[in-house]
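Thread title: Can someone regenerate the structure for this chain?

I was given the following input by a collaborator and told the matching structure tokens would be attached. They weren't. Posting the sequence so someone can regenerate them.
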Amino acid sequence: MELRHATNPDQVPGMDTTELRERYLVPGLFQAGTVQAVYTHEDRVVLAGITPAAEPIAMPTYPEIRSEYFFAHREAGIVNVGAPGQIVVDGTEYALATGACLYVGRGAREVTFAGSGAGEARFYLFSAPAHTAYPTVLTEPGTGTVRELGDQETSNRRTLNQYIHENGVRSCQVVMGVTTLHTGSMWNTMPAHTHDRRTECYLYFDLPEDARVLHILGKPDETRHLVVANQEAIISPSWSVHSGVGTSAYSFVWAMAGENQSFDDMDTFPVAEMR
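Best answer:
Regenerated them for you:
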């Protein structure tokens, strides 16, 4: 498990591209036959990419979380961004189509991941500490709370699927969903915003191999950008804006943990006021 410490906004102006990428970009999550995990002290979130090969993979525990098993004090939302696969939680099997979301609650002891043999399943996990146990729930792609946002004229027409949230699948603090941009749209999350009460992470996917997303981060009046490839994640501290524009349409998993679960608890910043 890779460990990353929290940062504050005053550090950003002095960072070069290499340091920005080391702090906030999470590449290489999906490597066949492995679990790749990153622990960030931003709200004690764990990001992981699980890529089963010929044999199923069990979710390990790690010394960094000081638990007998991974979900002893944690919960997670898991989205399959690869080919169809299966997750077994304490003996119950869940079949995850591409884009499906599985919530796993605190107390799950044995969690294993497997492919279906029809391509490489790639499971993206977002985990946070939990103080209440909620049941494991599978949400099929496109069946959560659907919100249509943006406009084609401003190149940000997008369909937002809320899966784990206060009016959907219940959790202790994880909020999670998937947003898909319509053909011809490239901008996400505009106007840009912060929510000083939650950390948010993005995983960009369905991006062509020769395409990239320019992800905007930092304080609204002191922004920076990162060039992000397909199936790479971004850690966005609570004080940072998070928005991006792609060289083509794409999808992204958004997930949050922190003070509350209100999706609309955000502080927006008009583009004209950003720097």
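DSSP finds one helix and 24 strands in the chain.
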